[in-house]
Batch of 2 targets.
Target 1
Amino acid sequence: MQQLEQHLAKTLAPIYLISSDEVLLVQEARDLIRGAAQKAQYTERLSLTVEAGSDWGKLLYAETHSLSLFAERRIIELQLAGNKPNPATSKILQSIAAAPLDNTILIITANKFDSKTEQTSWYKALDKAGVTLQIWPIPLEQLPAWIMQRGKKSGLNLTLDAAKFLADQVEGNLLAAAQEIEKFGLLQISGTLDQTTLAKIVTDNSRFDIFSLVECALSGDSQRCLRILDNLRAEDTEPVLILWALSRELRTLAEISKQAKQGVALSSLFAKYRIWEKRQPKVKRFLQQHQPAACLKMLADAAKIDRTIKGAGEGNVWDAFQKLTLQMAGNAILI
């Protein structure tokens, strides 16, 4: 990733091909390129997600050769996931590589390629015309160091023992580790964390019940949702933090639900929205329980809670939290 940052500080290539099985690293590499492109006034962005059997090659060719309606410079992001070009789309990729446009940056992301794929004509053409990034998984023995480095970016100084503890907790999952570190920041935890302190935070700190509340709602455990809310209220937890966690989750779920209804594969959506493997069954359950309209209704209810917290709406905040979490759990009948 450091080499990519150094490259982007100097120049921008017309084509980037990023491949890895580490979803988080792929997304962060894409975000670095996107950020550098936006600084260079590439202000229009189009995202294309490839579905198995779809005729995406013609659409990509049309987009790369059409005039921009809103800006002179644009970014086109093509998400291949595990789909590989057929002979027709292979030729289209080769034609794009042979004559890349000055006003367009093409970012292609995909699962890790095997050595056979690297020998194909389309891969070689893209490699010659732009930049190919093969991002390797971080070995387990290097994960604590990665966690410590990640923590420093969030203002946390994790000791080696603490980093090892967290690596064990997330079972080597980079995305899960990043999300845990993000939680520390949201809960305004800072300074030096050793293993003892970190373990106490993870197991004893009632503020983590906020995230447990979200997970229980996704799992449909309505009774535990109510118990967690009672604990949060007893601990004088700020309602705005609870609302933030619930609203954030609902916004993501509403978008996934909408796109899934439009036919986008869940595997692609899980990768796009960083739903790591252990959470996927809970999210699938939620999506089976709730249609896109129901997700939007719950977001509207969250907005009402926000107004109540700010004194601009009537009602009891904690009663509203109970209603919302039970709706998320699919047990609104208990209200």
Target 2
Amino acid sequence: MKERLVAGVQQHGTAIVGVDDAWSRGSADRLEKAGQRVVRISVKHPLPDGIFVEREAIWRASRGARSEVARLAGIGSLRGLHNAQNAACASACALALGLSLDTLQEGLRSFPGLAHRMEQVGRRGPVLFVNDSKGTNADAAAHALSSFSDIFWIAGGKPKLGGITSLAEYFPRIRKAYLIGEAAQEFAGTLGERVPHEISGTLEVAVANAARDAEARGFPIPSCCSRPPVRRSTIPQFRNSRRTFLRARQGASGREAGGVNSACPGRGAALL
């Protein structure tokens, strides 16, 4: 279906295709053979022709020659490989439309992020609060967990098939987990003795406890809190999760946290 959509680009238009998997590479090849102008995107490998991400920068290559398009370093709203891919695709769109490199860089730098998607909602000292509640399954949560090295993780809601067992490779990054909702007991069983955890019950309690523990460390610790396996359309207790999170964060800190668009300096911290 996606290939058909891209194949329908108007004459003299541009088809932008990520080529980091075999199916998409085949799709790009078929489109090109059909006469479409194709721009290939990669966040895993340099390309001889196309747009790719390397060393926290977006590069454009043509016939083997390459030039830097934009810098991603220090843009907190674009953390993670998945956001780097989004930024590369957006850059390809901007270049196809004739935008200048300065305009492109400023657009990336000023992008605040989308609500509930690795959203930086506040900071208190070294603790960065991140709302990734759009991560409603383990696959999506993996992107958030891979973006931080020291994590205080709030997880829960309604469980999905497979739970969080597939996230085991990220468990060493988690300093402590705070479990909420119906999935709390199941997640506790999966974490077992590998990850310190508590059953917090509610989001308000979880944010307060995670903020307390992060600050008690006594040194800056980047902490990401996401809410994996939850059904976003069928969870009334989390329907207003952003408002609940902001209220809980304010209560935990005793004041509003500022600087939500600034990059996390060195080893910071985050909560969802």
